[in-house]
Amino acid sequence: ILIRPHPAIWRLVHGMAIIYLVVLTFLLFQ
């Protein structure tokens, strides 16, 4: 059974993923 979470939760998850990718690429290209 799939439960659809609140849109704010998705926005938070996407924001964390984007920040994680930016930090990861920043550390890789140093």
TrEMBL record:
<dbReference type="GO" id="GO:0006646">
    <property type="term" value="P:phosphatidylethanolamine biosynthetic process"/>
</dbReference>
<keyword id="KW-0256">Endoplasmic reticulum</keyword>
<keyword id="KW-1133">Transmembrane helix</keyword>
<keyword id="KW-1208">Phospholipid metabolism</keyword>
<comment type="similarity">
    <text>Belongs to the CDP-alcohol phosphatidyltransferase class-I family.</text>
</comment>
<dbReference type="GO" id="GO:0003882">
    <property type="term" value="F:CDP-diacylglycerol-serine O-phosphatidyltransferase activity"/>
</dbReference>
<dbReference type="GO" id="GO:0005789">
    <property type="term" value="C:endoplasmic reticulum membrane"/>
</dbReference>
<keyword id="KW-0443">Lipid metabolism</keyword>
<dbReference type="Pfam" id="PF03034">
    <property type="entry name" value="PSS"/>
</dbReference>
<comment type="pathway">
    <text>Phospholipid metabolism; phosphatidylethanolamine biosynthesis; phosphatidylethanolamine from CDP-diacylglycerol: step 1/2.</text>
</comment>
<keyword id="KW-0472">Membrane</keyword>
<keyword id="KW-0812">Transmembrane</keyword>
<keyword id="KW-0594">Phospholipid biosynthesis</keyword>
<keyword id="KW-0444">Lipid biosynthesis</keyword>
<dbReference type="InterPro" id="IPR004277">
    <property type="entry name" value="PSS"/>
</dbReference>
<comment type="function">
    <text>Catalyzes a base-exchange reaction in which the polar head group of phosphatidylethanolamine (PE) is replaced by L-serine.</text>
</comment>
<feature type="transmembrane region" description="Helical">
    <location>
        <begin position="12"/>
        <end position="29"/>
    </location>
</feature>
<protein>
    <recommendedName>
        <fullName>CDP-diacylglycerol--serine O-phosphatidyltransferase</fullName>
        <ecNumber>2.7.8.8</ecNumber>
    </recommendedName>
</protein>
<keyword id="KW-0808">Transferase</keyword>
<dbReference type="GO" id="GO:0106245">
    <property type="term" value="F:L-serine-phosphatidylethanolamine phosphatidyltransferase activity"/>
</dbReference>
<dbReference type="GO" id="GO:0006659">
    <property type="term" value="P:phosphatidylserine biosynthetic process"/>
</dbReference>
